[in-house]
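I hope you will forgive my troubling you with a question about protein structure. The matter concerns a single protein, recorded as an amino acid sequence and a row of backbone structure tokens. Please examine both parts with care and let me know of anything in them that strikes you as inconsistent. Thank you for your consideration; the sequence and its tokens are set out here:
***
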Amino acid sequence: GNSPDVYAQAYFSYSAKKSGGYTISQLRIGHKPVTSAYAIENADYVGCHKASYVHRFSMLDNIKEGGVFVLNSPWTAEVMVKKLPLAMRKQIHDKKLRFYNIDADAIAAKVGLSPRINMPMEAVFLYLSNIIPFEESLPALKEKIKETYMHEGGEVVAKNLQAVSMAVDALERVDYSTVDGWLTEPDAEMRPAPTFANDSIEKFITKIH
């Protein structure tokens, strides 16, 4: 939003937890003033910054056909068949999404920033969205890092710069069309149905929940 001729709008939803909660960010960015007053319905880009969220949120319902989906996970494409819900895998396929994976947690751990992954994920967003040419946005991001983290010391700045520099090379496009079981393998992560000793719990309490 600070870049010349670029306009931005942001809306954030936070969980009630002050620590360890989630944030859902809706961002509109373009070269004309943004005046929309409603939630995003056809997203060009969706990023999932925590792998466990694939079982918590239906995050691909509002992504447009051919959009970009970026997942932060340690999984290979073959492992994703077991880890991603079948409904999500079908959405990725049916919407013909450009699906990318990055292990941002591994980057953060390597440079000593764990668990902070915001900078490598932001670098990936700038690279894939190309709203601003990456050769312009990357230096601007690095300057922003220096401005933001200098009060924490030069070492923190250096770690964030290193994480950003590693991000694009760590990004991998997932060719799900070649992965066996992508559209057929059942959810391996699904929890078994609970059993109850007391019928009243199953009949009433679970329905209320």
Notes: The two ends are 42 Å apart (CA to CA). The longest helix spans residues 154-170. The CA atoms of residues 80 and 172 lie 13 Å apart.
